Amino acid sequence: MERHLPNTLLLNAGFEPLRIVSWQRAFALIFQEKVEILEEYGFIVATVSRHYNIPAVIRLNRWVNLKRTSPIIRFSRANLYARDNYRCQYCHKYFPERELTLDHVLPVVRGGKKTWDNILTACIRCNQRKGHRTPEEAGLKPLNRPVAPRWLPGMVGSMRMRSAPEIWARYLRLYSDDPFPPLRAADHEA
Ligand SMILES: [Zn+2]
């Protein structure tokens, strides 16, 4: 039964995601008073004397410098799709990888660059519809502003973006420098 219990997202003291830990490891950190609990799943583990809520997100009390070891996210098709959560940024629908493409926000023919901040994930239909226009010219409203992600779940294991629990979403900060971007209602459709 314990095998089905979810993992816990561990954040640095500055709220940046560090790694995914088992719930047992999360409890060890809590009992050692090294972390504070930010979110709980609502699942209970019972011992003879007490009941414990499984922590979903915990945060270190003391900041750990991981700059030396933190990997730079490679600029690649797969990582762009992961950043955008396999979601067309124009029609806001999720697609399998083979039905996705990369759209240059400012088209290449008009001087658009192949950079994190000029590329969005799009479905083939939206990409064709947009053509050599900007989103504004095509009447399209991108879901997110393209930026270089600071962290992807793949960096802490083989985990894919889509399998990250929803309760982690606002701590992953993939799209903005705002420490707590609000969860979008549309995210719950997935
Ligand atoms: Zn689309």
Q: Ligands bound here?
A: zinc ion
CATH class of the domain at 77-138: Mainly Alpha
Please state the average pLDDT score. Answer: 79
Based on secondary structure, the structural category is: alpha+beta
Instruction: Compute the number of helices.
Output: 5
Over the alpha carbons, how many angstroms does the gyration radius reach?
A: 19 Å
Strands of the widest sheet, in order across it, are: 2-1-4-3
Main beta sheet, described? 4 strands, mixed
Q: Give unreliable regions as ranges.
A: 154-162, 174-190
Question: Describe it for me?
Answer:
A hairpin with a 4-residue loop joins strand 3 (35-46) and strand 4. This protein has helices at 23-31, 77-83, 124-130, 135-138, 169-172, and strands spanning 8-11, 17-21, 35-46, 51-60, 100-104, 119-123. Residues 154-162 and 174-190 have low confidence and may be disordered. Among the domains are: 2-60, no CATH class; 77-138, Orthogonal Bundle (DNA Binding (I), subunit A). It has a four-stranded mixed sheet with strand order 2-1-4-3. The protein has five helices and six strands. 20% of the residues are buried. It has 190 residues and is of the alpha+beta class. Zinc ion binds next to strand 6 and helix 3. The site of zinc ion has 8 residues, from strand 6 and helix 3.
